[in-house]
Amino acid sequence: MLEGCSDANWISDSDETKSTSGYVFTLGGGAVTSKSVRQTIIARSTMESEFIALKMAGSEVEWLKNFLANISLGMKPTPYVSIHCDCQSPIVIAKNKTYNGNNRHIQLIHNLVKQLLKRGTISIDYVKS
Question: Looking at the whole model, is its pTM more than 0.70?
Fold first, then answer.
């Protein structure tokens, strides 16, 4: 089963204004891909930096699912990939049917994550950190 974890570190360094996103995906218990990178936009809160990390992980899921569909591993295609997140607020916002408009600068990211959820590409699950 393909599954992953997504996390973000909201501006931990006083000299830096951008957060760090990271993810790791495992298949059969072994890591198949991981990434840690400075975010390209400035997040105004922990929730926003976690949401940006979820979008980055969701994009990787799309690539991984396409890659795995093109190679023969003798396994059934996964209907969705579970992404574990240690922050509840981006999960609630991603699953909310309406967009409140308070965070317009991340509206595109919000829409991309909601699309992945709606299509059944990903599911987002809360895990304690």
Answer: yes
